[in-house]
Amino acid sequence: MATPIKEWSKLEVRAVVRFLFSKGIKPSEIHKQIAETYGEGAMSRSRVYQWCTWFGEGRTSLGDEPKSGRPKTLTNEENTTRVDELIRCDRRMKIRKIALKLEIPKSIVHEIVHDTLGYRKVN
């Protein structure tokens, strides 16, 4: 038995699934070979079946599909600029009021004000 590969990427394992699936190997056997080569944590049996289904339906991409919904972060350059402009207009404006005006969560406004812009309360 060969030594398992310790460092691998998701794309590499998905490429192996695609290759073996195109050769007509069953998903259960593909999972067994992946577990032997990359270790048990490389890809679950259900995920191998899912990828085989997608490749059987004609999928060619190995990457993740774009996800719908709220973006991962709202601390982008546009929001940072908008928060900075509001603070420069009224330095007494509270985080809660900024969040309401810009319609973004208070936690994001707090992160922008303190971490990104580096503003602190002065007594």
Query: Could you tell me the number of beta strands?
Result: 0
Oligomer: single chain
CATH class of the largest domain: Mainly Alpha
Radius of gyration: 24 Å
Number of domains: 2
Averaging pLDDT over every residue, what do you get? 90
What structural class should be given to the helix and strand makeup? mainly alpha
DSSP strand content: under 5%
What's the order of the H and E elements? HHHHHH
Low-confidence stretches: none
* CATH architecture verdict of the largest domain: Orthogonal Bundle
Q: Kindly report the CATH topology of the largest domain.
A: Arc Repressor Mutant, subunit A
Number of helices: 6
What's the N-to-C terminus distance? Answer: 68 Å
Helix % is: 55-70%
Protein name: Mos1 transposase HTH domain-containing protein
Region (Disordered): 59-80
Organism: Plakobranchus ocellatus
Domain Mos1 transposase HTH: 12-51
Question: Can you walk me through this structure?
Answer:
This protein is an all-alpha fold. The protein has 2 domains: 10-56, Arc Repressor Mutant, subunit A (Orthogonal Bundle), CATH 1.10.10; 77-116, Orthogonal Bundle (Arc Repressor Mutant, subunit A), CATH 1.10.10. 56% of the residues lie in helices and 0% in strands. The model has no long low-confidence stretch (mean pLDDT 90).
